[in-house]
Amino acid sequence: MDIHIVGAGSLGLLFGSKLAQVGANVTIYTRTSSQAVELQDQGLSLITEMNLVTEKTSAVKIRVWDEIEDSYCIEENAWILLTMKQKDLTDAFARKLQHVLGETGRVCCFQNGVGHVQFLEQYLQPQQIYTAITTEAARRDEGAVVRHTGQGETRIGRMGGHAEASEHEIHLINWLQRAGFKAFMSKNIDMDVYRKLLINAVINPLTAIMRIKNGQLLETSERVQCMRWLYEETMFIYRAHNIPVEQNLWEQVNQVCRSTSANTSSMLKDILNGTESEIKWINGSLLRMADDLGIDAPVNRMVYTLVKAMHQSNT
Ligand SMILES: NC(=O)C1=CN([C@@H]2O[C@H](COP(=O)(O)OP(=O)(O)OC[C@H]3O[C@@H](n4cnc5c(N)ncnc54)[C@H](OP(=O)(O)O)[C@@H]3O)[C@@H](O)[C@H]2O)C=CC1
Ligand SMILES: CC(C)(CO)C(=O)C(=O)O
């Protein structure tokens, strides 16, 4: 099966490496030609969670996204796994994605936060756009070396659509499972997306502002109080929008802090690296949802503004 991966960062290299190892026909598209050369020369190395095995695959085809010719189109019914960050989903990128996918290609979006699906709908047919919610964790160490830092699960689905899985969807899931991922089609991806959004909206800005690991959020009553304020306000916004979410989400947020206790959240990493964080698509999306209904969201607004202010002092 042909699987194309756009974004040769942490998640893209993890999925690319494991899929290629089990024989999928993988093409990875980099942003820079220097990374493409690195991958071509060295092969792609995966360091497993146990730090034990380093597997190298040269079976992956490497291309530079910006160097793709205008007439290029992927095979019929092939998949693109989109593993870039939301900030890189520009109009120019989406226009190119549209012709690379052709009429029958499908794209599966791995981004945290919300907003990207609505953005891509301006360029693609709704039935071409899938969302993946993954709790796999990866970190790119060098241009050709990726570390699998935590095993999780990957749910895939189309926002607003809960039909029986199609042949092409089953095909993708089978390959992901063969590659060792706990992957399945979600019957309710909307719920998965908003669950993850809530988890990220509580944990990410607070760990970034306080510069602490995820587990340290639970260490003092004041930190838990800040989490609770964000949680309550976000649930209020969800209820106002009739977004169905489970009842025990507070417990789930706490559980994620415990199960990823040693993690530096992606937002804290971005702040420490001086790169743009995903605040705009996490708490920023919640602010847009609140504004749409004229609801006040002072806690989300405060953390959003603080994180934005930290960006500016870093750049
Ligand atoms: N890492 C993880 O464990 C998880 C990540 N996610 C989500 O997945 C998304 C990706 O995360 P992650 O892999 O960590 O991010 P990375 O920054 O590691 O990877 C993103 C990659 O996209 C590349 N890229 C940017 N623009 C383009 C372009 N125009 N064409 C081709 N490639 C491009 C970047 O290239 P360059 O490096 O050259 O800038 C980079 O390699 C994020 O939204 C994140 O929230 C979700 C769950 C877990
Ligand atoms: C779940 C969590 C908070 C794990 O670190 C995450 O998704 C992130 O850091 O972006």
UniProtKB/TrEMBL annotation:
<feature type="domain" description="Ketopantoate reductase C-terminal">
    <location>
        <begin position="188"/>
        <end position="310"/>
    </location>
</feature>
<dbReference type="GO" id="GO:0005737">
    <property type="term" value="C:cytoplasm"/>
</dbReference>
<protein>
    <recommendedName>
        <fullName>2-dehydropantoate 2-reductase</fullName>
        <ecNumber>1.1.1.169</ecNumber>
    </recommendedName>
</protein>
<dbReference type="GO" id="GO:0050661">
    <property type="term" value="F:NADP binding"/>
</dbReference>
<dbReference type="InterPro" id="IPR003710">
    <property type="entry name" value="ApbA"/>
</dbReference>
<dbReference type="InterPro" id="IPR013328">
    <property type="entry name" value="6PGD_dom2"/>
</dbReference>
<dbReference type="Pfam" id="PF08546">
    <property type="entry name" value="ApbA_C"/>
</dbReference>
<keyword id="KW-0521">NADP</keyword>
<feature type="domain" description="Ketopantoate reductase N-terminal">
    <location>
        <begin position="3"/>
        <end position="159"/>
    </location>
</feature>
<dbReference type="InterPro" id="IPR050838">
    <property type="entry name" value="Ketopantoate_reductase"/>
</dbReference>
<comment type="pathway">
    <text>Cofactor biosynthesis; (R)-pantothenate biosynthesis; (R)-pantoate from 3-methyl-2-oxobutanoate: step 2/2.</text>
</comment>
<comment type="similarity">
    <text>Belongs to the ketopantoate reductase family.</text>
</comment>
<dbReference type="InterPro" id="IPR036291">
    <property type="entry name" value="NAD(P)-bd_dom_sf"/>
</dbReference>
<keyword id="KW-0566">Pantothenate biosynthesis</keyword>
<dbReference type="InterPro" id="IPR013332">
    <property type="entry name" value="KPR_N"/>
</dbReference>
<dbReference type="GO" id="GO:0008677">
    <property type="term" value="F:2-dehydropantoate 2-reductase activity"/>
</dbReference>
<dbReference type="GO" id="GO:0015940">
    <property type="term" value="P:pantothenate biosynthetic process"/>
</dbReference>
<dbReference type="InterPro" id="IPR008927">
    <property type="entry name" value="6-PGluconate_DH-like_C_sf"/>
</dbReference>
<dbReference type="InterPro" id="IPR013752">
    <property type="entry name" value="KPA_reductase"/>
</dbReference>
<dbReference type="Pfam" id="PF02558">
    <property type="entry name" value="ApbA"/>
</dbReference>
<comment type="function">
    <text>Catalyzes the NADPH-dependent reduction of ketopantoate into pantoic acid.</text>
</comment>
<keyword id="KW-0560">Oxidoreductase</keyword>
